């Protein structure tokens, strides 16, 4: 999986999952633009990559605005001469239940996750199309965006929206040989350390203890480095035919998420009014309702 002569941007890569992605891409030979809102964090990430023999450069800024997106692309081109890979990883949390969530809680998360993904992908797509040599765009989703999560109206909504954009961009950029995919990671980061059923596993990792097979396999939970291989794969030539997909990764588990689809259908001549729906619902639809939230193994819920 050789990424030599490739140039990548990884947003939110000063620490956590983003840093793991940046390090893995650099280890595979790519030159990497590291991004963080804090100069010292970005510089430390760059130093960790260069000290390991990789090539990296920092562009500091909060994603969301068109200006930051363009600065990232310009930084890649000015420093390394081109752009081949974009990973939109930057994110924040403002968790609150619906009736306590403020406008600012909602807007800040949507701005970073959803608008930040849009502006960065738009700027990268313009550059990649100008180069005329294809490209790889990898957006970061979440299980919360796939199934919902208590207290995360803003985050789940943004992550679900990102998947909708990924599928659309895969269609729009296909003729330019630019693939667009999402990774849906599950890993020990600042965004998962407060999840109750994951807490004992996060503590184990903090103590340097190995995770049990249940955590790594059934929960698909591990460290940030466990998710980095999927990003490197999607950035490389081996994934040239993969686009519009949501790839779940974490611990020892690799998965492919399905797209939303109709699961049950019925037909009624002349259309459906409330009464005919009420008549049909118990026999055709009632036994096929979808669940909400993560469907966790019994051992996890017992915690």
UniProtKB/TrEMBL annotation:
Domain called Ketoreductase: residue spans: 6-224
Keywords, alphabetical: Oxidoreductase
GO molecular function per UniProt: 3-oxoacyl-[acyl-carrier-protein] reductase (NADPH) activity
Enzyme class: oxidoreductase
Source organism, top-level taxon: Bacteria
Assigned EC number: 1.1.1.100
Alphabetical list of Gene3D superfamilies matching this protein: NAD(P)-binding Rossmann-like Domain
InterPro entries given in the database record: KR_dom, NAD(P)-bd_dom_sf, Peroxisomal_Beta-Oxidation, Sc_DH/Rdtase_CS, SDR_fam
Family: Belongs to the short-chain dehydrogenases/reductases (SDR) family.
Listed name of the protein: 3-oxoacyl-[acyl-carrier protein] reductase
Organism: Spinactinospora alkalitolerans
Lineage summary: Bacteria, Bacillati, Actinomycetota, Actinomycetes, Streptosporangiales
